[in-house]
Design goal:
- The complex is a heterodimer of chains A (259) and B (130).
- Chain A has helices spanning 16-29, 46-50, 59-63, 69-72, 95-102, 106-126, 142-150, 162-176, 193-197, 199-210, 222-227, 233-236, 241-254, and strands spanning 4-8, 33-39, 74-75, 85-89, 131-136, 153-158, 182-190, 214-219.
- Chain A has 259 residues and is of the alpha/beta class.
- Chain A has an eight-stranded mixed sheet with strand order 3-4-2-5-1-6-7-8, sandwiched between helices.
- In chain A, helix 8 (162-176) links the parallel strand 6 (153-158) and strand 7.
- The longest helix of chain A has 21 residues, at 106-126.
- Chain A starts with a strand and ends in a 5-residue tail after the last helix.
- With 130 residues, chain B is mainly α.
- Chain B is built from seven helices and three strands.
- Classes of the chains: A alpha/beta (259), B mainly alpha (130).
- The interface between A and B is medium-sized, with 17 and 19 residues.
Chain lengths: 259, 130
């Protein structure tokens, strides 16, 4: 059963955060209890996108064992229509915190993995969360690999850019496969509308090229770029095609149909 | 003494007892083999340590491990503390196989082992974990 989802990519700018936020919001809109985590400790951005009030405790504090997870959670449920619950746990954006986390050694990273794995007990079992979403930093970084190891399912965001395609293929073969992770690929920012129209054809092509199933295809929407990260589409534009694509991805994950 | 014990019990109990004793012996032999291997690999050190110094079981280490050990190591990361039988349930491999791999991870310094009665528990070092 998929409950912890890591959203990852080889390169930056593939739309991980946008996908994570909107996927989490979709689950919440469907009545689920969801928490989205910012694991991009070197370039935190979730606090800006979600426009959260200042946090007293950060995910950094939980991983440093200076507090328990409940202290770090910010309840944003009032922003989502319906009875679902939407929480976030943020990475500390201060320069000092970024510097601190960059200097951690392997033993700290190992403890951090243990703390992430412990969320299964504390948040899923005790606090009854339905889904935890990890928005990670791109590439092969400790925090991202920790998130992948702790997750049940990895959503890999990729674009048609050649530099991204080759790296993603390598990462799929050499990282997710080694950890035996269930993976779904999201082809994001697709420019050619004909590509998204040929669904079955693309599904087969992706499976041949990347050796993983296709979770969804997202055309390049000018409205998303224009929103400059100010909108949660699932919440602000319920009839937008992007919202519908996200709803379909959430449905596939919930129904365990990604294969 | 064992002979007396065995004559008073049902055949199934006797088999269980034999199996448990064999498992114990198996564990001990595996450890002895591993110790011998590490001694042979280090000819300059005639008094080789019983296990390597404590090593961290972080994700990069997991990535560099051979596939068979990675599977076991990842399971122990998820459980924190488990017996070979509990790990075998997760990995769907035989208990004896997991026992051998877990002991190998102990020798490599990634795990600690503790016996409680007839059960052997494997765990990641507490000082490192907490």
């Amino acid at each position: 059963m998929t409950q912890i989802i890591a959203v990852h990519s080889y390169k930056g700018g593939t739309g991980k955060t946008s996908l994570s936020v909107n996927l989490a919001a979709t689950f919440a809109k469907n009545g689920k209890k969801v928490c989205i985590f910012d694991l991009d400790f070197r370039a935190p951005s979730l606090f800006a996108i979600l426009k959260t009030p200042n946090a007293d405790f950060w995910l950094n504090d939980y991983l440093n064992s200076t507090c328990e997870i409940d202290k770090t959670l910010i309840d944003l449920s009032s922003r989502i229509p319906g009875n679902g619950k939407f929480y976030t746990c943020l990475a500390n954006p201060s320069t000092e915190a970024i510097r601190d986390i960059s200097s951690k050694d392997r033993k700290w990273e190992m403890r951090a993995l243990g703390r992430l794995l412990a969320l299964r007990e504390s948040m899923l079992k005790d606090m009854k969360f339905d889904y935890l979403l990890f928005d990670t930093s791109p590439g092969l970084q400790y925090s991202s690999i920790n998130a992948i190891v702790a997750a049940d399912f990895v959503v890999v965001a990729t674009t048609g850019d050649r530099s991204d395609v080759d790296g993603t293929k390598r990462m799929l073969a050499e990282l997710y496969n080694l950890f035996e992770k269930k993976t779904g690929l999201v082809l994001n920012k697709v420019l050619d509308p004909a590509v998204t129209a040929k669904k079955t054809e693309m599904q087969n092509k992706i499976k041949t090229d990347y050796q993983v199933p296709l979770l969804g295809m997202v055309p390049c929407f000018c409205e998303i770029l224009r929103a400059e990260g100010n909108l949660i589409f699932v919440q602000d534009k319920p009839d937008h095609p992007f919202t519908k694509i996200l709803a379909e991805m959430a449905r596939k994950i919930e129904a365990n149909e990604v294969n | 003494m064992i002979k007396n014990e065995l004559t008073n019990k049902k055949p199934s109990n006797i088999l269980e007892k034999i199996e448990a004793t064999l498992e114990k012996l198996n564990d001990k032999v595996e450890i002895m083999i591993e110790i011998q291997k590490s001694t042979n690999n280090n000819p300059n050190n005639s008094k080789a340590p019983l296990s390597l110094p404590e090593a961290s079981l972080d994700v990069m280490t997991l990535l560099s491990m051979p596939d068979h050990l990675r599977k076991t190591a990842m399971s122990i990361c998820r459980c924190s503390r488990a017996t070979a039988e509990e790990i075998a349930e997760q990995t769907k491999r035989a208990r004896a196989v997991e026992s051998a791999y877990l002991n190998q991870l102990v020798i490599m310094g990634y795990l600690k082992k503790e016996r409680k009665g007839r059960k052997a528990y494997f765990f990641i070092e507490k000082e490192v974990q907490s």
